Amino acid sequence: MENPSNNTTNVFMTALEWIMTLAYLNLLWVGFTLLGLFFFGIGPATLSVFSLVRKKLRQGDLVHIFSQFKAEYKKHFKAGNIYFFILLAVAAFLYVDIQIIQALPPSGFIQMVVLPALIALSALVIVTATFSIGYYLENNEPMLTAIKQGFWVTLISPVSALIILHTFLIQFLIFSYIPAMVLFFLVSLYAFVTEWIMNKAFNRIKIRNKSI
């Protein structure tokens, strides 16, 4: 018969290990983002965090994290920058649209049609951007292909998409109240939760495709 205290200890140690790993990965994300002068570093650094979180979820352990992060950063440098600048362009488009709407005189059409459409589009971008990373790492295909497929995965996985969106919003609220957590968990915590969700979604899609 298993000792309940041993199980509790194991759960605590596993949780502590994850917390320390996520904090370290996020610090590496900050460092390598700055190494790339932000604009050329944030994309590869983000893909590196997601890749190593994915490895730990599947393998249960990570060794030589710094060396692995450095290798992943180099490996995904081109794809990461393609991903980031496309996302930056889309975000800029949405931001300009929102600013234009705020400058226009209030109207029922804007409040009931245009604004909700922009909010829905923003939510779609957040989830598609997340699924694109997952698809890219899962299938090792070009980033442009991954973004296109990430969009379709979003559409055919509405439950997973909603969970990812809520994860983004909840994390945003938490970090708004506890800004100090940004340094240690901004990207790594989101990667941890969404990679777990995406693994489930991709497995379901594979099973569904095999049954067809």
Task: Provide a compact summary of the structure.
The protein is an all-alpha fold. Helices cover 86% and strands 0% of the residues. It is globular.
Write a structural description.
It is a single chain. This protein starts with a helix and ends with a helix. It has one domain (4-211). It contains 9 helices and no strands. It has helices at 4-35, 42-59, 65-75, 77-103, 108-139, 143-156, 158-177, 182-185, 188-211. It is 86% helix and 0% strand. The mean pLDDT is 93. Helix 1 (4-35) runs antiparallel to helix 2.
User: How many extended strands?
Assistant: 0
Task: Estimate nothing, just give the exact number of structural domains.
Answer: 1
Q: Please count the helical segments.
A: 9
Beta-strand portion reads under 5%
Distance separating the two termini: 44 Å
Mean pLDDT: 93
Helical content stands at over 70%
Main features:
mainly alpha; globular; about 210 residues
Question: Can you lay out the helices and strands and say which pair or pack?
Answer:
Layout: H1 4-35, H2 42-59, H3 65-75, H4 77-103, H5 108-139, H6 143-156, H7 158-177, H8 182-185, H9 188-211
